[in-house]
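Work Package 3 (structural annotation) set out to generate three-dimensional models for the target panel prioritized at the project kickoff. During this period the team completed the workflow that converts sequence records into discrete structure tokens, so that structures can be stored uniformly alongside our sequence database. As a representative example, we reproduce one entry of 429 residues exactly as it appears in the project archive.
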Amino acid sequence: MEKEKSMAEITRKMKADSFRMASLSEEVRNRILRAVKETLLENREEIFTENRKDLEQAKSDNLPDPVIKRLKFDEHKLASVAEGIDQLIGLSDPLNRKLMDRELDEGLRLVRTTCPIGVIGIIFESRPDALVQISTLCIKSGNCVVLKGGSETRNTNRILYELISRAAIENGAPEGCMHQAQAHSEIDELLNCYGSVDLIIPRGSNSFVQYIMNHTKIPVMGHADGICHIYVDKDADVDMAVKIITDAKIQYTAACNAAETLLVNRQIAKEALPKIAKDLRAHNVLLRGTKEVSELIECQEMKEEEFRTEYLDLIISVKLVDDVDEAIAHINRYGSHHTDAIITNDHETAERFLRLVDSAGCYVNCSTRFSDGFRYGFGAEVGISTSKLHARGPVGLEGLTTYKYLLYGSGQTVGEYADGQKQFHFKDL
């Protein structure tokens, strides 16, 4: 019986294959994506059967309803990921794009061009559709990927991985293009694969993301909490505010871009807050607010430090503020730098909010739920980054590439420029 390979051995093989993966033409990568879509659609019943096993186990384990909702993979989710694959195929090739073309001197040309990151380890939450999105994004961007999904979706993830990896390899991808880590212990093994793995993207709780960051030398990109805010300005259209806030809270309550905190300008609070509260209650949302808020509407009273709470449930925090500057200060202090929105008809106030809120997504007069790679036209996403280095916001194809410098010479040496025989003239082509 063949000995099971360690994560170190697997990722070393993937690293070697990553150079082959990077060299695949756009035509081959798109052919792989079409094959992946076809095999998922053809094997839908097998996928749904495995998903039902996960759902039954989740109910048996008394997992919360928002978690169970995320686990479900049905015709709607299948149609959504298939549409995402079509969108990916239609996107321009993210690789080998010239970012700079400069003549340093006659016969000495410098080109900066895009290329894959290499081997990416992605640890994600219990959403089977995330596995499809991550895998296909990595295929399109020419990256190899180690996938570690939640144990709650082990059956669905297993069949999806088997179908996708087989379709990829049969259509031209190297054998080391994908690997599914299944045991929890493999996470720590993966974190020790410095030199073979180029990037880790964790998706989970704040404590989990911090654990990943503190236990690896591999660069980490991602976000922990999604504490998203909506500020209703004194110049807001109240009916518009009601519509947007309700959507941001209830359209998909368990999502990281669902609104968790509502800030309302005091000048409009007596008019706006009862209308907003009425509509939220009609959708079974529990309101929690400061003592001042409780004097205007019925709500559960909360303390200031509780504004750091990400509910992922039908609950929202409410606070009154004097103006846009107090709203901005609150968001920058208590928010998670994910996605925050302002409702206002005042252009200058909106622009001040956009400039000063320190978040990956800053919106005017629309729902925070738009913070999504698919809705941005990225062909889905591998996650949302709240960091400021390399990629920020929904991470799609562009966020899965880096760049390299190509220098084309004709016999030049540095000594010729050091002693004055030749001079640079730096001409952009």
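The mean pLDDT is 92.
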